[in-house]
């Protein structure tokens, strides 16, 4: 009886501590300025640097192995659970204890996720740091910025072809991405990136099937890039994932920070990769208000850029399957649950940041 009583007390204390921590995390989310100064630019920078220091030198993704291990563990647990039910040995299955263990496990994951990454979703972020006005932009602003991006993507493609820059050596490319951030930090010191920890995804082919080009692992601090995607996308995707490592959780912010880094790179492959992606975001948005203008923009693309557009179209077409839309729905819910009201459409909001940046600095 005494042993059982002590066991119950331990569970009660554990649940109480968990609920207190979850409550504190929830309360903290209502104070974005506090998160910006004390978490995102304080505690998080130290913990993310620590993760990159201890795992960055490892040539493979520890996070990918962790995900695989968790998947195997869950499958084994499910198999055992079903096996017990089929044998009708329900007396061996303590439902209350099982539910309690499940609650504790999910709560620990939730607390870890938020303390070591998730609170970044609540920071004011890059708009606060650059003092950008991201209010609703006018159609004329969108047309102007899209026109500039059209010019930039054509120019940088030609420059890339002349210099014959290659993106085939991904290790060199990842190092060049860090160089881009170092150069960018000369203008924006808060974007300083030390200790590289960008890895080739172990699930590249699966990534095509599930529809991801890259991802950040909040449990190990590693950035993973799917290297099976068209090569001209990889530089910008890499900069995007590195932006997550710096604490820019919002997808639109990570896109914008990735753009800032890429255009400061001495490597023209990074310039083209960023402008290619942003032009497509802007022109798609323009299509909803001025479809003729958007189509004319596409017609004005350099032949070499159109060739890349076709390669990208075939890539996504080849990746079409029944599971990817389901994964997209879950990811959409995840983003909306983390302060990104537009879900997967949040990526497109980078154009709002870009317009605000152009209106302030007069350049892209």
Question: What does this 3D model show about the protein?
Answer:
The protein has 364 residues and is mainly alpha-helical. It has a domain at 128-361. The chain is built from 15 helices and 3 strands. A 3-stranded mixed beta sheet has the order 1-3-2. Strand 2 (214-217) and strand 3 form a beta hairpin. Residues 343-347 have low confidence and may be disordered.
Summarize the structure.
With 364 residues, the chain is mostly helical. It contains 15 helices and three strands.
Shape field: globular
First and last CA, distance: 71 Å
Helix amount: 55-70%
Pick out the low-confidence regions. Answer: 343-347
**What is the residue-averaged pLDDT?**
86
Oligomer kind: single chain
Helix-strand makeup class:
mainly alpha
Please provide the count of β strands: 3
Strand order of the largest sheet: 1-3-2
**Share of β-strand residues:** under 5%
Count of discrete alpha- or pi-helical segments spanning 4 or more residues: 15
Q: Give me the Rg, rounded.
A: 23 Å
């Amino acid at each position: 009886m005494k042993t059982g009583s002590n066991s119950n007390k331990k569970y009660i204390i554990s649940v109480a501590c968990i609920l207190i921590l979850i409550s504190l995390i929830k309360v903290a989310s209502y104070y974005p300025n506090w998160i910006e100064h004390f978490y995102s630019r304080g505690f998080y920078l130290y913990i993310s640097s620590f993760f990159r220091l201890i795992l960055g030198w490892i040539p493979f993704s520890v996070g990918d192995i962790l995900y695989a291990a968790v998947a195997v563990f869950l499958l084994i647990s499910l198999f055992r659970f079903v096996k017990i039910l089929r044998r009708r040995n329900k007396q061996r299955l303590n439902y209350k204890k099982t539910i309690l263990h499940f609650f504790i496990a999910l709560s620990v994951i939730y607390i870890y996720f938020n303390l070591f990454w998730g609170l970044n979703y609540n920071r004011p972020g890059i708009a606060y740091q650059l003092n950008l006005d991201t209010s609703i932009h006018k159609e004329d602003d969108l047309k102007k910025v899209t026109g500039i991006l059209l010019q930039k993507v054509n120019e940088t493609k030609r420059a890339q072809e002349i210099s014959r820059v290659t993106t085939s050596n991904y290790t060199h490319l990842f190092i060049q991405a860090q160089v881009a951030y170092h150069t960018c930090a000369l203008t924006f010191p808060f974007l300083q990136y030390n200790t590289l920890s960008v890895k080739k995804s172990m699930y590249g082919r699966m990534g095509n099937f599930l529809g991801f080009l890259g991802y950040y692992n909040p449990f190990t601090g590693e950035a993973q890039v799917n290297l099976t995607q068209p090569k001209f996308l990889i530089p910008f995707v890499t900069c995007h994932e590195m932006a997550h490592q710096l604490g820019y959780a919002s997808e639109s912010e990570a896109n914008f920070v990735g753009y800032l880094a890429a255009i400061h790179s001495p490597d023209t492959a990074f310039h083209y990769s960023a402008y290619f992606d942003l032009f497509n975001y802007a022109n798609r948005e323009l299509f909803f208000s001025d479809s003729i203008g958007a189509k004319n923009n596409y017609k004005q693309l350099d032949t070499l850029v159109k060739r890349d557009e076709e390669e990208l179209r075939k890539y996504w077409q080849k990746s079409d399957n029944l599971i990817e839309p389901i994964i997209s729905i879950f990811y959409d819910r995840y983003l909306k649950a983390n302060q990104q009201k537009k879900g997967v459409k949040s990526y497109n909001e980078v154009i709002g940041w870009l317009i605000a940046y152009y209106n302030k600095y007069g350049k892209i």
